[in-house]
Amino acid sequence: MRRRLFIGLAAVVAAAGGAVAQSPVERGGYLVNSVGACGNCHTPRQQGVPDLSKRLSGGFQTFDEPWFTVKGANITPDKETGIGNWSDADLRKALLEGVRPNGVQLAPVMPYGFYKIMAPADIDAIIAYLRSVPAIRNEVPAPQYKAQQVAASLPGADKPMSEADLKDPVKRGFYLSSIAHCMACHSRVSEAAPPDFKNAYGKGGREFRGPFGTSVAANISAHPKAGLGGWSDAELRRALTEGVSRDGRKLKPPMIDYVAYYKTWGPEDMDALIAWIRTIPPIE
Protein backbone atom coordinates (compact mmCIF):
# COMPACT_ATOMS: atom_id res chain seq x y z
CA MET A 1 0.00 0.00 0.00
CA ARG A 2 2.78 2.42 0.94
CA ARG A 3 4.61 1.58 -2.29
CA ARG A 4 1.54 2.31 -4.40
CA LEU A 5 1.02 5.58 -2.57
CA PHE A 6 4.65 6.57 -3.18
CA ILE A 7 4.36 5.81 -6.89
CA GLY A 8 1.18 7.85 -7.15
CA LEU A 9 2.68 10.83 -5.35
CA ALA A 10 5.83 10.69 -7.44
CA ALA A 11 3.79 10.59 -10.63
CA VAL A 12 2.02 13.76 -9.55
CA VAL A 13 5.34 15.52 -8.92
CA ALA A 14 6.89 14.29 -12.17
CA ALA A 15 3.85 14.87 -14.37
CA ALA A 16 4.28 16.48 -17.76
CA GLY A 17 4.63 20.20 -17.34
CA GLY A 18 4.64 19.72 -13.58
CA ALA A 19 1.04 20.88 -13.25
CA VAL A 20 -1.29 17.98 -14.06
CA ALA A 21 -1.64 14.99 -11.75
CA GLN A 22 -1.11 11.63 -13.45
CA SER A 23 -1.70 8.07 -12.36
CA PRO A 24 1.26 5.68 -12.68
CA VAL A 25 -0.22 4.23 -15.89
CA GLU A 26 -0.71 7.72 -17.35
CA ARG A 27 2.80 8.74 -16.39
CA GLY A 28 4.17 5.53 -17.87
CA GLY A 29 2.22 6.13 -21.07
CA TYR A 30 3.71 9.62 -21.33
CA LEU A 31 7.25 8.30 -20.83
CA VAL A 32 6.79 5.45 -23.31
CA ASN A 33 4.74 7.17 -26.00
CA SER A 34 6.09 10.73 -25.81
CA VAL A 35 9.46 11.14 -24.09
CA GLY A 36 10.99 7.74 -24.81
CA ALA A 37 9.51 7.46 -28.31
CA CYS A 38 9.50 3.69 -27.77
CA GLY A 39 7.01 3.16 -30.58
CA ASN A 40 9.56 4.38 -33.09
CA CYS A 41 11.34 1.03 -32.76
CA HIS A 42 8.63 -1.18 -31.25
CA THR A 43 5.57 -0.39 -33.43
CA PRO A 44 4.89 -1.76 -36.95
CA ARG A 45 4.23 0.64 -39.82
CA GLN A 46 1.97 0.74 -42.83
CA GLN A 47 3.25 2.79 -45.75
CA GLY A 48 5.73 4.47 -43.46
CA VAL A 49 3.17 5.46 -40.82
CA PRO A 50 3.10 3.78 -37.37
CA ASP A 51 0.17 1.35 -37.09
CA LEU A 52 -1.18 2.38 -33.69
CA SER A 53 -3.69 -0.47 -33.73
CA LYS A 54 -0.62 -2.68 -33.19
CA ARG A 55 1.27 -0.30 -30.92
CA LEU A 56 4.40 -1.78 -29.30
CA SER A 57 3.91 -5.23 -30.87
CA GLY A 58 7.23 -5.19 -32.73
CA GLY A 59 9.24 -2.88 -34.94
CA PHE A 60 9.21 -2.46 -38.70
CA GLN A 61 12.95 -2.01 -39.25
CA THR A 62 15.95 -4.29 -38.89
CA PHE A 63 19.01 -2.89 -37.15
CA ASP A 64 21.98 -4.54 -38.84
CA GLU A 65 25.18 -3.35 -37.21
CA PRO A 66 28.67 -4.78 -36.64
CA TRP A 67 27.63 -6.23 -33.26
CA PHE A 68 24.07 -7.42 -33.90
CA THR A 69 21.09 -7.83 -36.21
CA VAL A 70 17.82 -7.20 -34.37
CA LYS A 71 14.30 -5.83 -34.71
CA GLY A 72 12.32 -3.94 -32.08
CA ALA A 73 10.73 -6.56 -29.84
CA ASN A 74 7.07 -7.14 -29.10
CA ILE A 75 6.69 -5.46 -25.70
CA THR A 76 2.94 -6.02 -25.29
CA PRO A 77 1.72 -8.50 -22.61
CA ASP A 78 1.24 -11.33 -25.13
CA LYS A 79 2.51 -14.45 -23.38
CA GLU A 80 3.82 -16.23 -26.47
CA THR A 81 5.39 -13.45 -28.54
CA GLY A 82 5.64 -10.56 -26.09
CA ILE A 83 6.55 -9.93 -22.45
CA GLY A 84 3.47 -11.44 -20.84
CA ASN A 85 5.53 -14.00 -18.93
CA TRP A 86 8.08 -11.47 -17.67
CA SER A 87 7.90 -10.47 -14.01
CA ASP A 88 8.17 -6.86 -12.86
CA ALA A 89 11.72 -7.67 -11.76
CA ASP A 90 12.47 -9.02 -15.26
CA LEU A 91 11.23 -5.81 -16.85
CA ARG A 92 13.14 -3.65 -14.40
CA LYS A 93 16.36 -5.58 -15.11
CA ALA A 94 15.86 -5.25 -18.88
CA LEU A 95 15.27 -1.51 -18.60
CA LEU A 96 18.13 -0.75 -16.26
CA GLU A 97 20.71 -3.42 -17.11
CA GLY A 98 19.72 -4.60 -20.58
CA VAL A 99 19.45 -8.23 -19.52
CA ARG A 100 16.68 -10.63 -20.60
CA PRO A 101 15.09 -13.07 -18.12
CA ASN A 102 17.27 -15.83 -19.61
CA GLY A 103 20.42 -13.80 -18.86
CA VAL A 104 21.15 -12.78 -22.46
CA GLN A 105 22.37 -9.20 -22.89
CA LEU A 106 20.18 -7.00 -25.08
CA ALA A 107 21.64 -5.17 -28.07
CA PRO A 108 22.41 -1.54 -27.10
CA VAL A 109 20.08 -0.25 -29.79
CA MET A 110 17.70 -0.73 -26.86
CA PRO A 111 19.01 2.33 -24.98
CA TYR A 112 19.16 0.83 -21.50
CA GLY A 113 22.50 2.58 -21.02
CA PHE A 114 20.52 5.82 -20.74
CA TYR A 115 17.80 4.60 -18.39
CA LYS A 116 19.73 4.29 -15.12
CA ILE A 117 18.96 7.98 -14.54
CA MET A 118 15.23 7.28 -14.17
CA ALA A 119 13.57 7.80 -10.83
CA PRO A 120 12.27 4.49 -9.37
CA ALA A 121 8.71 5.80 -9.62
CA ASP A 122 9.14 6.40 -13.35
CA ILE A 123 10.49 2.87 -13.89
CA ASP A 124 7.47 1.53 -11.96
CA ALA A 125 5.17 3.73 -14.05
CA ILE A 126 6.58 2.36 -17.30
CA ILE A 127 6.08 -1.19 -16.06
CA ALA A 128 2.51 -0.38 -15.00
CA TYR A 129 1.80 1.08 -18.43
CA LEU A 130 3.27 -1.88 -20.31
CA ARG A 131 1.05 -4.18 -18.25
CA SER A 132 -1.98 -2.13 -19.29
CA VAL A 133 -1.63 -2.18 -23.09
CA PRO A 134 -3.50 -4.80 -25.16
CA ALA A 135 -1.68 -8.08 -25.69
CA ILE A 136 -0.97 -8.47 -29.41
CA ARG A 137 0.35 -11.66 -30.94
CA ASN A 138 3.18 -10.75 -33.31
CA GLU A 139 6.28 -12.90 -33.55
CA VAL A 140 9.43 -10.91 -34.17
CA PRO A 141 12.56 -12.61 -35.56
CA ALA A 142 15.02 -13.63 -32.85
CA PRO A 143 18.04 -11.36 -32.41
CA GLN A 144 21.40 -12.36 -33.86
CA TYR A 145 24.40 -11.32 -31.78
CA LYS A 146 27.78 -11.14 -33.54
CA ALA A 147 29.85 -10.04 -30.56
CA GLN A 148 29.56 -9.27 -26.87
CA GLN A 149 26.94 -6.58 -26.32
CA VAL A 150 28.20 -3.53 -24.44
CA ALA A 151 26.21 -0.36 -23.84
CA ALA A 152 28.11 2.88 -23.44
CA SER A 153 27.37 4.59 -20.14
CA LEU A 154 26.16 8.19 -20.36
CA PRO A 155 28.14 10.36 -17.90
CA GLY A 156 25.87 11.82 -15.25
CA ALA A 157 23.08 9.36 -16.02
CA ASP A 158 24.42 6.35 -14.14
CA LYS A 159 22.15 6.71 -11.12
CA PRO A 160 18.55 7.86 -10.48
CA MET A 161 18.02 11.61 -10.50
CA SER A 162 16.49 13.05 -7.34
CA GLU A 163 13.16 14.80 -7.07
CA ALA A 164 14.99 18.00 -6.07
CA ASP A 165 17.16 17.87 -9.20
CA LEU A 166 14.10 17.42 -11.41
CA LYS A 167 12.89 20.85 -10.32
CA ASP A 168 15.90 22.45 -12.02
CA PRO A 169 15.07 23.06 -15.74
CA VAL A 170 18.53 22.15 -17.06
CA LYS A 171 18.79 18.99 -14.96
CA ARG A 172 15.22 18.08 -15.90
CA GLY A 173 16.13 18.62 -19.55
CA PHE A 174 19.11 16.28 -19.18
CA TYR A 175 16.84 13.73 -17.48
CA LEU A 176 14.34 13.87 -20.34
CA SER A 177 17.04 13.84 -23.01
CA SER A 178 18.49 10.71 -21.42
CA ILE A 179 15.15 8.91 -21.54
CA ALA A 180 14.77 10.16 -25.12
CA HIS A 181 18.35 8.83 -25.74
CA CYS A 182 19.30 11.85 -27.86
CA MET A 183 23.01 11.15 -27.59
CA ALA A 184 22.59 7.65 -29.01
CA CYS A 185 22.67 9.35 -32.42
CA HIS A 186 24.16 12.76 -31.74
CA SER A 187 27.34 11.42 -30.13
CA ARG A 188 27.94 8.63 -32.60
CA VAL A 189 30.03 9.66 -35.59
CA SER A 190 29.63 6.45 -37.59
CA GLU A 191 27.77 3.16 -37.65
CA ALA A 192 31.02 1.32 -37.03
CA ALA A 193 31.66 3.06 -33.71
CA PRO A 194 29.60 3.22 -30.51
CA PRO A 195 28.55 6.58 -29.04
CA ASP A 196 31.49 8.63 -27.79
CA PHE A 197 30.43 10.81 -24.87
CA LYS A 198 33.93 12.18 -24.29
CA ASN A 199 35.12 13.40 -27.69
CA ALA A 200 31.89 13.58 -29.67
CA TYR A 201 29.24 14.65 -27.15
CA GLY A 202 26.64 16.35 -29.33
CA LYS A 203 28.86 16.29 -32.41
CA GLY A 204 26.66 14.14 -34.61
CA GLY A 205 27.96 12.97 -37.97
CA ARG A 206 26.49 9.50 -38.28
CA GLU A 207 24.93 8.91 -41.69
CA PHE A 208 21.52 7.30 -42.21
CA ARG A 209 20.50 5.98 -45.62
CA GLY A 210 17.05 5.07 -46.93
CA PRO A 211 14.46 5.85 -49.61
CA PHE A 212 14.76 9.47 -48.46
CA GLY A 213 18.41 9.56 -49.48
CA THR A 214 21.09 10.26 -46.89
CA SER A 215 20.77 12.23 -43.69
CA VAL A 216 23.40 13.06 -41.09
CA ALA A 217 22.90 13.36 -37.33
CA ALA A 218 23.28 17.05 -36.60
CA ASN A 219 25.82 18.75 -34.38
CA ILE A 220 23.60 19.92 -31.51
CA SER A 221 26.37 21.50 -29.46
CA ALA A 222 26.56 25.23 -28.76
CA HIS A 223 29.07 25.83 -31.56
CA PRO A 224 27.92 29.06 -33.29
CA LYS A 225 28.46 27.75 -36.84
CA ALA A 226 28.78 23.95 -36.80
CA GLY A 227 26.13 23.52 -34.11
CA LEU A 228 23.03 25.20 -32.69
CA GLY A 229 24.74 28.12 -30.97
CA GLY A 230 23.17 30.65 -33.34
CA TRP A 231 19.64 29.22 -33.15
CA SER A 232 16.89 30.91 -31.13
CA ASP A 233 14.70 28.99 -28.69
CA ALA A 234 11.81 29.39 -31.12
CA GLU A 235 13.86 27.88 -33.94
CA LEU A 236 14.84 24.93 -31.77
CA ARG A 237 11.23 24.41 -30.72
CA ARG A 238 10.05 24.51 -34.34
CA ALA A 239 12.66 21.96 -35.40
CA LEU A 240 11.72 19.60 -32.57
CA THR A 241 7.93 19.90 -32.77
CA GLU A 242 7.37 20.71 -36.46
CA GLY A 243 10.38 19.12 -38.15
CA VAL A 244 11.47 22.34 -39.85
CA SER A 245 15.09 23.47 -39.76
CA ARG A 246 16.26 27.03 -39.24
CA ASP A 247 16.49 27.57 -43.00
CA GLY A 248 12.98 26.25 -43.62
CA ARG A 249 14.18 22.86 -44.79
CA LYS A 250 12.12 19.84 -43.71
CA LEU A 251 14.10 17.41 -41.58
CA LYS A 252 14.78 13.91 -42.92
CA PRO A 253 14.47 10.55 -41.16
CA PRO A 254 15.23 9.45 -38.58
CA MET A 255 14.86 12.85 -36.89
CA ILE A 256 11.58 13.67 -38.61
CA ASP A 257 10.14 10.45 -37.16
CA TYR A 258 10.77 11.74 -33.64
CA VAL A 259 8.87 14.97 -34.27
CA ALA A 260 5.59 13.07 -33.83
CA TYR A 261 6.75 12.29 -30.29
CA TYR A 262 8.30 15.66 -29.42
CA LYS A 263 5.12 17.50 -30.32
CA THR A 264 3.30 15.60 -27.55
CA TRP A 265 5.70 16.68 -24.81
CA GLY A 266 4.41 18.91 -22.05
CA PRO A 267 5.38 22.59 -22.63
CA GLU A 268 7.56 22.79 -19.53
CA ASP A 269 9.33 19.58 -20.50
CA MET A 270 10.08 21.00 -23.96
CA ASP A 271 11.37 24.21 -22.35
CA ALA A 272 13.61 22.08 -20.10
CA LEU A 273 14.96 20.11 -23.06
CA ILE A 274 15.89 23.34 -24.86
CA ALA A 275 17.49 24.71 -21.68
CA TRP A 276 19.66 21.59 -21.49
CA ILE A 277 20.60 21.74 -25.20
CA ARG A 278 21.96 25.24 -24.54
CA THR A 279 24.46 23.78 -22.05
CA ILE A 280 26.12 21.32 -24.47
CA PRO A 281 29.70 22.60 -24.90
CA PRO A 282 30.59 23.82 -28.42
CA ILE A 283 32.39 21.26 -30.56
CA GLU A 284 33.57 21.47 -34.17
Description:
By secondary structure, this protein is mostly helical. The protein has 2 domains: 2-145, no CATH class; 165-277, Orthogonal Bundle (Cytochrome Bc1 Complex, Chain D, domain 2), CATH 1.10.760. Helix content is 33%, strand content 8%. It has a 3-stranded antiparallel beta sheet with strand order 3-4-5, with no helix packed on it. Helix 2 crosses helix 5 and helix 6 packs across helix 10 (267-277). The protein is globular.
Give the helix proportion (percent range). 25-40%
- Give the tally of β-strands: 7
Assembly form of the protein? single chain
Question: What letter string, H or E per element, gives the SSE order?
Answer: HHHEEEEHHEHHEEHHH
Q: Which percent range describes the beta-strand content?
A: 5-15%
Number of helices: 10
Can you tell me the residue ranges where pLDDT is under 50 for at least 5 consecutive residues? 1-19
Broad structural category? mainly alpha
Shape: globular
Mean pLDDT: 92
Please list the strands of the largest sheet in the order they lie side by side. Answer: 3-4-5
User: Largest sheet at a glance?
Assistant: 3 strands, antiparallel
Count of spatially separate domains? 2
Report Rg.
18 Å
> End-to-end distance, in Å?
52 Å
